[in-house]
Each structure stands twice: as structure tokens, then as C-alpha cells.
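Researcher: We're teaching a course module on how sequence relates to structure. For the next exercise, students receive a sequence and then see the predicted structure as C-alpha cells, so they can try to spot secondary structure elements on their own. Here is the exercise chain.
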Amino acid sequence: MSVPALIRRSAELPGRGRLAACRAGDAALAAARRAVSAEPLPWPYEGQASVEIEGIGCLGTVGEQRPVPIASITKVMTAYVVLREHPLGPRDPGPAIRVDRAAARESGSTIESVVPVEEGQEFPLRQLLEYMLIPSGNNIARLLARWTAGSEAAFVRRMNEAAAALGMTRTRFTSSCGMDTGNISTAVDLLVLARTVMRDEVFRNIVATPSVRLPGGRGEARTTNRLLGRHGVAGLKTGTSTPAGGNVLWAAYKEVDGSRNLVLGAVLAQRSGRSPVRARAAVWAHSRRLVAAVQRAPLDELAALGAAAPPSLTQPTPDAERGPVRGAAVALSGRGRAG
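Model: And here is the predicted structure for the students to work with:
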């Protein structure tokens, strides 16, 4: 089977089949990659990454697919579980949820990303999902977990059950917000989640929103996703902390013959153990190049691009990627720990 045919065949598989195709590492696929002369996608030189496009399938995966901390990308699964149990229509604000004492107390944190709320305030579900996904409020994620399942521990069990049902075998959750390092996944697993949750119109609309008005007349908070609105990017979620490094799960649309095809990408573990500023600089640089390359490439070349052998992950990263990124996302707490 030719390489383009192999890639097209992977696009026809169900979700678990595409997951297996992205994870393929056998000698036959490796030989097929070596046989392709097309220029590969501009993959990062560290961590791991994967990209897929609707109608074609997996364009490639680099880096060992071992579970790594994903920080606030965790909130994508939190939103998925909440919306699965409490689905919303496109214009439905959802039920009112009361802010409890814990969420109000946590809103004063200076070490994590939070949204300022007060005990007793009530917000519709959709608004709280916006607070969780746009400025990445950790206290809101925990509040939604308690409201949905009675306790965060019970909610986390539902998160892990959902991951297992989706075939995300290398993913584990220990909290609803990703602040701790126990929330781990891989680039390939996260594309499974992204593909699933992007089918929900409410979720799509929220992650495509650049800012949200904060409660109590405190102004607006911008999205932590600095790719949004560039190169067709329409979501999804970031996750940055010192242990996790820089992480981005992104969704974009590519125009093909008058129709929009969904492109999904994950770039993980950039500058792990370094400062959040350096981690963000690296993940933004790599992600921008990846999505721009996919947008530039004609559709008939993408199969060849995806099949080309990736660069060595041991190659030094260019100096230009080591500096701070302009406009780096800053958590509402001011420290940028888990946005």
C-alpha cells in the first residue's frame, strides 16, 4: 500500500483505530516514512507532538509517547465530563450554580490561576465553563467538579472512566484542574479527547472566545491561548507549569475546496523544569510553526508531509526559541503557574 493510501486509510478508521495508527511504530511504517522525500512538518526538538486533520488522519507524531504532566489541559476533560452529564443547547445558559466557600477562598490564591468569586454568588453553568476554559480558573474547575459529582475525588473517578472509554490508555487524572503533576497524558491521547469534545457546539464556541468579563466589575480576562485567531486557530487549551513545561492543545480550520476541515494538534513538555516564561516561549514558537505549515500545504501534499521522517529530538533548539515570548499568557494570580 502506498504512503498516501496508508494515510487515507487511517482517516477512515474509527476513533480507536486512528489512535492505533498514530501510535504505529512498526518497521513497515518506518520504511514508508523513509521512502517519502517531502519536507517534514516543523516538529519541536523536545517533548512530544502530534497533528491530525479531518479527512486525512494523523499527519505525524514525534517524541516518545510516554505520559507527561499536562497542567491545565486537564480542564478539557473536566469540561467534557460536565457537558456529558449536563448537556447545553447553543443558547442555553444552563442551571444556576452557587459559589461555595472553598471556591471563594481559593480565589484569593497567589500561586495558581483563579477567577475572583464570592461565596453565595450564583452563575449559570455556561458562564462558569467560560471562567474555567478562557482565563483557566482552577477554583472554578474544582467548583464544577464538586457540583457535578459531590466531591472532587468522585469527579476525578468519572474523568478516568471517561478517558478509558475513549481509549486514552496513557492518560490519568488526579485532579480536575491540573495543578498537581499527577494529571498525565500523551500528545496522541489528547487528540482523541480534542476530536471528541470539539463535536460539542457549546464547547467549540467557548474555546473560540478571546475574552470573558469577570464578575464584580473587575474587567475582562483574556484567553490563555495566544494562538487563537491566528492561522485559523479556533481553540483549544493551554497548560503551563514549571514541572509540566509548556503545553498546548490546539484546534484550527483549514479551507479545502470550499469546506472547512478541522486540524488538531498537541505540543507537550516544552522546557519542562524551566521557568513558565521560557516554557511558553518554546511551546508558542513550535505550535505556530506547525499550524502555519499545515495551513500553507496543499491538501494533496499533506499525506506526504505526514509520512516524512521527523527530525531528531536531540537536535539543539535554535537560540531564537530560548527567549521570552511577547504577550506571554499570565495567570490571573500573576504567577502563570497553571494556565
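Model: If you want an answer key for the exercise: Residues 1-14, 25-38, 311-336 have pLDDT under 50 and may be disordered. The two ends are 43 Å apart (CA to CA).
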